[in-house]
Specification:
elongated
């Protein structure tokens, strides 16, 4: 109650009326509700993304893919299509597609993630190296050996530069 009185006093000191104070308070409440709503939506998207693998309860890769697509739609709407969460979710979608042998779609999604990571984090970042390695894996499975090797080498160069030789991620790439 003291905070409300102090707020009205503050508005009065600025030369505003009680109506001005009420309008400002309503605007602040509306913004808080919008932020809470966005936060809830982002929480929902995060939960969808974390349920990434088929579950013993019978959910399938198709279910996981559907949850990720829902999460991606929420992230794109709330944070924008160039956000890191959108890039990470797109990478997860690519992995699920690859696991379902949808190689062309997986490669497209990985390429999109790679561009987003490079834009957001730069080329010299462990997450960028991760998607480079994922692309190499898809190309290897597609028997595009030369291209796969190029991506694996690129991932290795990034990890060596950023993480060093002793890091397990670097050793995994070697």
């Amino acid at each position: 109650l003291r905070a409300v009185d102090a707020f009205y006093e503050f508005v009065d000191d600025l030369g505003g009326s009680a109506a001005d104070a009420k309008a400002v308070a309503e605007a602040m409440k509306a913004r808080l509700r919008a932020e809470r709503s966005a936060s809830n939506k982002l929480g929902e998207a995060y939960c969808c993304r974390m349920l990434r693998r088929p579950h013993p309860n019978g959910s399938s890769l198709v279910d996981a893919l559907g949850r990720h697509k829902l999460a991606l739609a929420i992230y794109n709407r709330e944070l924008g299509p160039n956000s890191l969460e959108s890039a990470r979710t797109t990478q997860d979608i690519a992995t699920l597609m690859f696991e379902q042998s949808e190689v062309t779609s997986a490669l497209e999604h990985y390429q999109y993630s790679l561009k987003a990571y490079c834009r957001s984090l730069g080329e010299a970042h462990p997450e960028t190296a991760s998607v480079l390695q994922d692309i190499g894996g898809v190309l290897l499975a597609s028997r595009q050996y030369t291209s796969a090797l190029d991506y694996f080498h690129h991932a290795l160069r990034v990890r060596l530069a950023v993480l060093g030789e002793a890091d397990p991620s670097t050793a995994e790439t070697m």
